[in-house]
Amino acid sequence: MSVRRPRIVLLVGILLAGCASVGAPLVGERGIAVTGSGQVTLPPDAAVIDAGVEARGPQLADATAEVDRLMRAVLARVKAAGVRDTDVRTTTYAIEPIAEPRQPADTGVRIAGYQVSNVVQVRTRDVAGLGRIVDAAVAAGANVVRNVHFTIDDPARAEAEARARAMKDAAARAQQVAAAAGVKLGRLLAVTESSPFRPVTLISAGRAPGPIEPGALEVKVLLEARYAIEP
To answer: Between 186 and which of 123, 151, 219, 230 could a Cys-Cys bridge form, CB atoms 3.0 to 4.6 Å apart?
Structure first.
């Protein structure tokens, strides 16, 4: 009676921490599947901040006029600090009624005034000058400063380099697995890439006084590669 030899199938998941695990058999052609990772570390070249004005008034016209006056001053000072018109965009413009506390005998809601908010997102490529832009906005009357973060203006080049490193990492891991299993690694069958991780360093403070340090960011690419096993 003949004995069927088992089909050699390896599925290896390589985690970011660098450990390997054997998974379920692949359906169809035998192969070795690995996950490769690649990353590139570089300093941020862009900074983004939300800045704006909130004001309250008993009349809507009063609150609106105050926000308009202060916001014009904020925009003028920010642009004078070197921010381009195309790097400023409104993200929030809100009008909210302020209700008086209800009394037991009240049958409805009484409006005591209005709160008006106008917030813009400011983007600058002068990372070192971010603190100066924040100071300029606050000096002009901004009482909303939030979502300060650093990023990479054009991550395509860094992603390409990280992708090449991830592919090299996957190939090396596949070769190691094949050697450990006593089989010969064959041709590349398929590659699937996860969405590249685009880094952002967030400073969640109402206002970040003093020096603001951008540090370094990492662009990461994770992909799954499947290789054949030669007979």
So the answer is: 230
pLDDT digits (tens, 9 = 90+) for 130-169: 889 999 999 999 999 998 888 888 889 999 999 999 999 9
Question: Is residue 53 within 8 Å of residue 70, measured between CB atoms?
Answer: yes
| pLDDT, tens digit (0-9, with 9 covering 90-100), for 72-85 | 999 999 999 999 99
Sign of CA dihedral 163, 165, 166, 167: positive
Q: Which among 221, 179, 202 is positioned nearest to 40, based on CA atoms?
A: 221
Domains in the chain (CATH in brackets) are 10-43+155-230 (3.30.110.170), 47-151 (3.30.70.2970)
Neighbours of 133 (CB within 10 A): 21
Instruction: Please tell me whether residue 126 adopts helix, strand or coil conformation.
Output: coil
Closest among 27, 150, 139, 122 to 73, alpha carbons compared:
139
